[in-house]
Amino acid sequence: MFSALLLLLNSCKDYLNINTDPNSPSEENLTSSMILPAAEMSIAATYSYSLHILGAYNVEYYAQQTGTPNYLEYSKFNVSPTNGNRAYTELFQHALNNSENVRKKAKEDAEYGVFLQATVLRSYAFHLLVDAFGEVPFTEALDGVSTSPKFDDGKFIYESLIAELDEAIALSANGGSLATSFILPNGTIADWQQFAKAEKLRLLSRINNVEDKSAQLQALIAENDFPASDIQIAGCWANSSGHANPFFAEEASSWAIVGGNVIANLALVETMNQDTYSDPRLAAWFKTNGSGAYRGSLSGANSIETTASWSSPNIAYNTPVVLCAKSEVEFFIAEFYARKGDAANAQLHYEAAINASFESAGVVGAEANIAQYPYDQSNWKQSIGLAKWIALAGVNGFESYTEARRLDYPAFGTVKGSDMLSAGGTFDPSAYVPGTLYTPYQRFDQVGDNKLLERFPYPEASTSRNTNSPTFPGYLEPIFWGK
Question: In the predicted model, is pLDDT for residue 246 greater than 90?
Answer without folding.
Answer: yes
